[in-house]
Amino acid sequence: MSAATSAAFELGDHLAILPIAVPLFGAGIACLMPRPFLAWLVAAISSLAVAVLAVLLVFKVQEVGTISYALGGWAPPIGIEYRVDMVNAFVLMIVGGIGAVIMLFALDTVPQDVSPRLQPWFYAIYLLCLCGLLGMAVTGDAFNIFVFMEISSLATYVMIAMGRDRRALLAAYQYLIMGTIGATLYVLGIGLLYTVTGTLNLADIAGRIEGAYAEYPRAVVAALAFVLVGISLKLALFPLHVWLPNAYTFAPPFATVFLAATATKVAVYILVRMYFGVFGPAISVATLPVTQAIMLLALVAMFAASLIAFYENRVERMLAYSSVAQVGYIMLGIALANETGLTGGIVHIFNHAISKALLFVAIGAVVFRLGHTRINELAGIGRRMPITMAAFVVGGLSIIGVPGTAGFISKWNLALGAVQNGTPFIVFLIMASSIIAVLYMGRFIEIAYFRTPTGDCESARDPGPLIMAPMLVLAAAVIYFGFDTTYSADLARDAARVLLGTAAQ
Amino acid sequence: MSGFDAIATYYNYGVTIFLMVAGLYIVVARGNMIKKLIGLMLFQTSVYLLYLSAGKVIGGTAPILADGIEVYSNPLPHVLILTAIVVGVGTLSLGLALIVRINEAYGTIEEDELFGEGRDT
Q1: Hey, are the CB atoms on A181 and B43 less than 8 Å from each other?
Q2: How far is CA A150 from the centre of its chain?
Q3: Omega of the bond leading into A470 within 30 degrees of 0 (cis)
Q4: With an 8 Å Cβ cutoff, are B51 and A191 in contact?
Q5: What is residue B90's three-state secondary structure?
Q6: pTM of the full predicted structure?
Q7: Is the CB of residue A491 less than 8 Å from the CB of residue A341?
């Protein structure tokens, strides 16, 4: 009995490393599986375990505050530290939760793109990507972030290249070039920071950066610029988004759902951590017009990307440009940099993750049935696939920000934050860009419901329970989190307080 | 500090900046996918040099404990760059693998000839 309690105690001690270790070992096991289903089972069990661990981490952080874990027993700041506070516990929960929910979706859709022989490798790659994203979120070491960023990125390139269309290869290559430039710029910035502070531990850098800035202002400003631009490439901030639409369009639907819901979100987290947690608003604001630049690009993204989405003819591309616009909202919250605005930005990481996952699962169901997603060839699809399209409408309403859906909570907080910031015209801009979202979502929904089904749409029907289950869970989540914000906006507010240094100790 | 001293002290940073800009220029200006990858690797190499320059202690030896030696170079940047080189090799090999597949699928690796394939109408 005592052995059991001590084992449980130790497991609790290692809670910070387990979400990384489980998918990493899972990947090694999955690729050795002789049958695709067994590999899927390994991936599903790992994803589920990660989700449970992430939720446990959130509870533990709420209970005991920040968790610091010395990797390999080497004490920070010399050793690598895994540091979990409210902010990254929240991100871990999003990534883990999405990963667990969408696994059923893989079972039906992955065989359409990937041959049975390669499927175990596909699931192994997926687990590596999951491992990399979680690692980026959990680590408190600047160089470790780069390593995990490259693990997740390399896995992402492979997953995108698995798409059935040959253009998937071009999309993967394009993303490889741009993603590597982004990661290299980031590591360049970290190198400069290391040169002037002598440490790679994020908390340690934060403690020394004021002194370093006094002594070497130019190096610190250059580091800030390199880090911000590098991460902005990864999170697809507006003019640096060109890799994203092709990647989302041509990747296998399962990969698209996973990446759209998690990859850019983790990059946003890194930016937030660097901006508020390492450089601190004092240096960021004093040296470069970072806040103004982010706000301007966020606003341009909200309008330009939404307008492009309106003119896109493939649903996935429309949703991809919508993602670029939604990243704009998240960045707007970061640029507002007051508690309510930042809460809006962080909760939108969560709300956009579930809404976009829902939309891509629904459109993945259409791909599963029809194999194409050109809007003008999907006339009347809403009458033949009623549940799928109803779920799509729920996701669309959330992207627009209609009250009663998760998206409304984000925009409400963003609008309040904008008013508190003394810039009420931004509230008007949020409304205006939401109207464009009404147009691009409405255009597709109108064709889907109010035209007579033609061609192969006539014989389409809703997908089986394997796709239906994650779709309905996500749709329920989008509506649920529009009403109960205990686990979304309230956690995001705690995270915002931690970032702004106003947390109740 | 005289001009010559400044050059002698900072020339490695000059090389870093040259490699960086040259690498990025190749990525942007060349349409051949393999040449683009070469540019990308050049760009990454500049970062290796930046880290190693910072880790070098003038007059220091390799960081191996031995009698009679007091000054060592900083080993940490070397370890970091070892990791970065591994990452770079991984990226390069994946990029080349993609290029092979692209060549099989399209019969060309010139972006001019592939241009316009990305859009769907």
Answers
A1: yes
A2: 16
A3: no
A4: yes
A5: helix
A6: 0.92
A7: no
Three-state secondary-structure class, residue A116: coil
For residues B69-95, average pLDDT: 91
| Tokens, residue A353 | 């993750």
H helices within A371-457, ranges in order? 381-384, 386-400, 406-420, 425-450
Q: Token digits for A274?
A: 């660097």
Using CA coordinates, name the residue in chain A closest to B111.
A170
Burial of residue A71 (number of CB atoms within 10 Å: 0-12, 13-18, 19+): middle
Share of chain A above pLDDT 90, in %: 61
Helix axes A167-197, B33-55, angle to 10 degrees: 10
- The residues near A502 (Cβ < 8 Å, ≥ 6 apart) are A339
For chain B, state the CA radius of gyration.
20
Q: Which amino acid is at A222?
A: A
C-alpha span between A74 and A309 (Å, rounded): 49
Q: Indicate the helix (H) or strand (E) that contains A241.
A: none
Question: In terms of Cα–Cα distance, which of A160, A248, A129, A151 is closest to B98?
Answer: A160
Q: How far apart are CA B25 and CA B30, in angstroms?
A: 8
Cβ–Cβ below 8 Å for A143 and B83 = yes
Q: Cα torsion at A366, A367, A369, A372 (round to 10°)?
A: 100
The answer to whether B47 touches B25, Cβ cutoff 8 Å, is no
pLDDT confidence bin for A10, thresholds 50/70/90: low
A172 to chain B: which residues are within 8 Å by CB?
98
